[in-house]
Request: fold
Amino acid sequence: MTTKTKAFISFGIVALLLLGLGFTFRSELQLALMTTLIHPNHAFGDVPPPTQPDYDNPKHWAALPTRKDLADRVPNGATDLQDTAPADVFFVHPTTYLSPDAWNQTLDDEATNRLTDEMVMQGQASAFNGCCQVYAPRYRQATLSAFFTDDASGLQALALAYQDVVAAFRHFITRFNTDRPFLVAAHSQGAHHADKLLAEEIVGTTLASRLVAAYPVGFEIDGSNGLPVCETPTQTQCQVSWNTVGTSEGLLRGLFQPSFESEASICVNPLTWQIDGGYADHATNLGAVNFGSGPTHEPGAADAQCRDGRLYVSDIRSDHYSLMPLGRDSYHIYDYALYYVNIRQNAQARVDAFLRTPR
Reply:
């Protein structure tokens, strides 16, 4: 065999391996490409920030209990009880702004607002309409690229977004909540902001006495905000969090994926509401709900076990959770959906327990 032939064969083997890896890790490669395409081509300070929201304006809220919106949606067999709910929830939505045009969303961005409503108000915030009146502000959220860059622009964009979350929360407390019990709930970027909000605006203040519980889900929440971790299904004035991932292992697992968790992250199992690391099988799942596929809930769709700061799922028994935009084994976008009915029931249980406790 000649040297040229050997080189050609070696090249062919390498090419086949690369093609195989490209197919196997196509989700991760797509994510890597996407994060490059959505990165703004200017620094944060080069362009004036969008106009700040006016929380007296109902248009600057994605959900309000006084109007019909997608946070009113319920799965089959459930009821929207906001008219009589004895508590409120302040819900901070995750990243839905994916544009490279700016570091922060403008509040009149109709396409982004529609995505927020259809994906998040309907699929996440609605889980709380059985226990609570739902308040969810729009805010100048940071674009997704803020989580994939080490430069100052990403941090500045997140800081601007947090300013809005604080303003919205203060408006919620002074204009809407009026001394009622309340929950704080959030996902992903929203949980990042909620973590800071709990530390700076609630823990150690008079508001803490009215906080039923917090659900800052889908981000690295390590407990440093000062709120205790919930250890039982009906404990109150505490917090729960989890980050859902698959169980496959390998050299390239997570190579291109964003890291929303670490071993220091809180993991409360949303099927047992325990932190003991015990395995919860599919039978304990009261129902996953993906409204994009209809209002039917699917009992037994996913199992769950906390390990190393992550919530591991070994098997999803549904065809409605195959979209993996953040890479293979990342169920980040389904943190709420896979455990929707359990979350809905648990929020109600904590509110009931809070109301039963003399204060």
Q: What stands out?
A: DSSP finds six helices and eight strands in the chain. The first strand starts at residue 61 and ends at 63. The two ends are 87 Å apart (CA to CA). Confidence is low (pLDDT under 50) at residues 3-29, 250-258.
